[in-house]
Design brief:
Layout: H1 2-21, H2 25-53, H3 62-71, H4 81-100, E1 102-103, E2 114-115, H5 116-126, H6 130-143, H7 145-165, H8 171-176, H9 184-214, E3 225-226, H10 242-245, H11 257-262, H12 267-280, H13 288-293, E4 309-312, E5 319-322, H14 329-347, H15 361-375, H16 378-383, H17 394-408, H18 411-427, H19 435-447, E6 449-450, E7 455-456, H20 466-469, H21 475-494, H22 516-527, H23 534-542, H24 550-555, H25 557-569, E8 583-584
Parallel strand pairs: 3-6, 7-8
Antiparallel strand pairs: 1-2, 4-5
The chain binds the ligand C[C@H](N[C@H](C(=O)O)[C@@H]1CCCN1C(=O)[C@@H](N)CC(=O)O)C(=O)N1CCC[C@H]1C(=O)O and zinc ion.
Zinc ion (ZN) is lined by residues 337, 341, 365.
């Protein structure tokens, strides 16, 4: 049965790959049929196993019991056929609208062919034109979120119906099942509580620097930061505005994008560089099929899902990445992220199919990022010729730590709120007429950002993010950004690159390159797949069984001290407040003059208010 399982699994993954790589009606039909066939097989397989196994909960063998436990969750395959067909079509349609969205150029309304990758990504990264950034952000949301709001209504109903058929109250609870902990949400809240002070110090510093660049009329002293000035379509990390916030200019820049371009880097070379790091750790090389079938550059002349992804075709041989790779440092990090998934696939490919997943989904997201923590160090970038010299002085250190914080610390509130919002939507705590303003409540409260133009319930801004349109859970990334530092610390100690008692070997300078001790330890943990509960996998690698925010704070300690001191020196207020109505529940149509004023009567409507 396991072999048949992988045959059905192979078929549906191949059909999904063909559609995601070349969006046509023919490919969509084949994918839809394969999805129904796979669901029917899952149902039949479970029925036959259950008949044989009887009360699987009483089985004495824990390994077998765990397999049945996982098999008993059918997911959306539990839906009646016509509901499942509707559900699958909705998800495919939402992610297709997202992946094929195009907008018009700011200064040339005749060119309406701009796509997210690479066009809008490049504009958001490099433009410092307030109006252009506002245009790109707003028009993207018109072409994505606004167009899928109705799909999302029916999607939520069918998702919750599926969850109930699996014994859950709603889809949010079903999404948390792989974390196997009934205190998981409170554990997450505790992690965020420990990390928020560091985030707020960083927010205050960046706000001052952006205010100095764009002027107080655009970036106020005590208010939230306008989201379109942060270098990213979703303000999910702020690394692309590093050049505006560098603490000590004139030092060697740790953003090696210019060096990569100058040295004629290609996507192929970026992938080979990443593979070389994995191999240096005695981890597994990419198989031949990987290089044959992966798509690492954007193909011209067809619509496809450009959002980078890693694929396991369930046959122990075929593993691929699809990425519209741009030659930037950001994309070099993403290459490592995706290859980390492939490494996990390779390590657990011989386990029973139910165990071929991460110890928990956060583990899967952490693998590539752990290696990237070493790659991003000035020491490593120098070693691979992307940094002309390593300046080993406190100021260069702060510059480096700030560039890392702009990617890792800024991401934390975003990584947390994405599913905070969806859990409330699935549970009904957030009702449909408040969807968008509840989103802005969270964006304001956790991230301290605001939309450049007032939002309404005519918008559906969550739908402007891939994982909402494509229905991919997101708390896995928040978990990953915490535990990847715990993994990094454990590996650095095994590599002899970090010693808590040796100040000359701080955690943020560690590079585990070529350490087979570190690589073997990581590989051993990956090989477990989800055959053991994740605290056991965590303990196997780090010696502890819990997520622990103190490690990421240890990594950034020198920066935290510097930021606190710097903010005090500039008498920056920490945190944010506003009396603006960021989102109103009326259906605000576009004001003819383009500028939106606050709602009539002044009494703020529901949405982000005085806090
Ligand atoms: C760029 C990255 N693409 C995802 C990933 O690699 O996780 C893709 C799309 C959704 C799932 N996925 C997969 O490839 C899965 N098949 C992996 C698996 O098998 O579990 C991504 O979305 N990231 C990276 C950092 C934060 C987040 C973002 O960009 O917001
Ligand atoms: Zn990932």
């Amino acid at each position: 049965m396991d072999v048949r399982g992988s045959q059905e699994c192979t078929e549906v993954s191949m059909a999904s790959w063909n559609y995601a790589s070349d969006i046509t009606e023919k490919h969509r039909k084949v994918k839809a049929a394969a999805q129904l066939k796979y669901a029917a097989w899952q149902k039949e397989a479970w029925e036959s196993v259950r008949k044989w196994s009887g009360k699987w909960e009483t089985l004495s063998d824990p390994f077998l019991r765990r397999q049945f436990k996982f098999m008993s969750i059918l997911g959306t395959a539990a839906l009646p056929k016509q509901d499942l067909e509707k559900y699958n079509n909705l998800v495919t349609e939402m992610s297709t609208l997202y992946s094929t969205a195009k907008i018009c150029e700011y200064k040339n309304p005749k060119n309406c062919k701009l796509e997210l990758e690479p066009d809008l990504t490049r504009i958001l990264r490099s433009s410092r034109d307030y109006g252009e950034l506002e245009h790109v952000r707003k028009m993207w949301r018109h072409q994505t979120g606004r167009r899928i709001r109705d799909h999302y209504k029916l999607f939520v109903k069918l998702a919750n119906k599926a969850a109930k058929l699996n014994g859950f109250d709603n889809m949010g609870d079903m999404w948390l099942y792989p974390y196997e902990s009934d205190v998981f949400r409170s554990d997450l809240a505790e992690l965020w509580k420990q990390l928020m002070p560091l985030y707020q110090q960083l927010h205050a510093y960046v706000r001052r620097k952006l205010r100095e660049n764009y002027g107080e009329e655009h970036v106020s002293r005590r208010g939230p930061i306008p989201a379109h000035l942060l270098g990213n379509m979703w303000a999910q990390n702020w690394g692309e505005v590093y050049d505006l916030v560098i603490p000590y200019p004139g030092k060697v820049s740790v953003d090696v994008t210019p060096q990569m371009v100058a040295q004629g880097y290609t996507p192929e070379r970026m992938f080979e560089l990443s593979e070389a790091f994995f191999v240096s750790l005695n981890l597994t090389r990419m198989p031949e099929e990987f290089w044959q079938h992966s798509i690492i550059e954007k193909p011209q002349g067809r619509d496809l899902v450009c959002h980078a992804s890693a694929w396991d075709f369930c046959n122990g041989k075929d593993f691929r990445i699809k990425q519209c790779t741009d030659v930037t440092m950001n994309d070099l990090i993403t290459v490592h992220h995706e290859m980390g998934h492939i490494e996990y696939f390779l390590k657990y490919k011989d386990l029973p199919e139910v165990f071929r997943s991460g110890a928990n989904p956060g583990f899967h997201e952490a693998v590539g990022d752990v290696l990237a923590l070493s790659v991003a160090t000035p020491k490593h970038l120098h070693e691979i010729g992307l940094l002309e010299e390593v300046q080993d002085d406190p100021e260069a250190d702060i510059n480096f730590l700030l560039s890392m914080a702009l990617d890792k610390i800024t991401f934390l509130p975003f990584g947390y709120l994405m599913d905070l919002w969806r859990w409330d939507v699935f549970s009904g705590k957030t009702s449909e007429q408040d969807w968008n303003c509840a989103w802005w409540d969270l964006r304001y409260k956790l991230q301290g950002i605001k939309p450049p133009v007032q939002r309404s319930e005519y918008d559906f801004d969550p739908g402007a993010k891939y994982h909402i349109a494509g229905n991919v859970p997101y708390i896995r990334y928040f978990v990953s950004f915490v535990i990847q530092f715990q993994f990094h610390k454990a590996l650095c100690m095994k590599a002899g690159e970090y010693d808590p008692l040796d100040p000359s070997k701080p955690l943020h300078k560690c590079d585990i390159y070529k350490s087979t001790e570190a690589g073997n330890a990581l590989g051993d943990m990956l090989q477990m797949g989800s055959s053991k509960e994740w605290p056991e996998a965590m303990a196997a690698l780090t010696g502890t069984r819990r997520m622990d925010a103190s490690v990421i704070r240890e990594y950034f300690k020198p920066l935290e001290l510097w930021l606190t001191d710097n903010n005090e020196q500039h008498r920056e207020s920490i945190g944010w407040e506003t009396d603006e109505v960021l989102c109103t529940s009326e259906e605000v149509r576009e004001k003819p003059e383009g500028k939106s004023t606050s709602t009539a009567g002044g009494a703020p409507a529901s949405g982000t208010l005085l806090l």
